[in-house]
């Protein structure tokens, strides 16, 4: 079943996106800026990365000597669709028996300047792999990251860095956490609300990477129907994705610069707040609604419900995360009201057939904003759920 699931994931369009070299470089530079020796003497594993196409492998191979790596390991599950176009390895093999048509791994412990051009680059990697085939070997199994073969490589590694199949993200993160490894991985933005992920964020065991969430990331795709644009003949797709890590970087320790509650209500750039007498309070939580991260009041001591995008700016020295709506992650901010006797209504007045129980774990506000479905009871009382919210408080400082 695991093999079937992985095969399906590899065939899913959302799992066919390739991370750009410059995006990897931008993210890794943040960890190096915070700690210049972060990769020194470390074994890095890229467990979802065919080196023929993976910019993760190319990046760390290129900077292997500069970062003083101990070892670089890359494994792939399936044959590369662009094999022998980036690196021309083993040309004597028949087409149907190419190494890249089968699951394989590459292990590198040094990259000398084999072409004597005064620099170590991907040309030297190609020469190294071509001259010593022991660096590239076929895997005995199918390359599934959950296989015993790849688990042993995981246990050997110090840091795991990759873009895993998004459809298997929960299992992949568990695979890393169980082994207590450091990591830098990509995922979709909504992963922070998963019940397998949010508690780790709340406990400050994992956090957002350096790259800001706004705008998503551009990935190369082989499917023309997926493409949002074409750049130099390469099909590109924008995906709402983020970096997650447990490697430290400086940006997450930079506190947000905030206005007071009074100034937000007078001068906020957001029309939803500007000119109001006060922030709205939830009907079922003892907390105020803060619809934008930059509208968090600097002088409010109580609980605030903020968007999940807050985590992109979260400074653990400035805020305490208490919980989140939905997915069973809100226990420390208990709700005080249930809506089982309400029913859901569309803006045109049509009932959806759902009861108010659907919104019991949401942060709900009294009234109807005229934009989305609302809930009403037999007395005509109307409430409406906010989007996914994270509950936070300012940390008291001395």
Structure description:
The protein is α+β, with helices and mostly antiparallel strands and 398 residues long. The chain folds into two domains: 2-253; 258-398, no CATH class. Helices cover 18% and strands 23% of the residues. It contains eight helices and 21 strands. It has helices spanning 2-11, 21-34, 55-62, 122-131, 148-156, 169-178, 198-202, 261-267, and strands at 17-19, 43-46, 71-75, 104-108, 136-138, 159-162, 182-188, 207-208, 217-221, 229-231, 234-239, 241-245, 287-289, 303-307, 319-324, 343-345, 351-355, 364-366, 374-376, 382-385, 389-394. The strands form four sheets. An eight-stranded mixed β-sheet has the order 5-4-3-2-6-7-12-8, sandwiched between helices. The protein has a five-stranded antiparallel β-sheet with strand order 17-16-19-20-18, with no helix packed on it. The chain has a four-stranded antiparallel β-sheet with strand order 1-9-11-10. β16 (343-345) and β17 (351-355) form a beta hairpin. The longest helix is centred in the first third of the chain and has 14 residues, at 21-34. The protein is elongated, with a radius of gyration of 25 Å. The N and C termini lie far apart (55 Å). Residues 1-15 and 79-93 have low confidence and may be disordered.
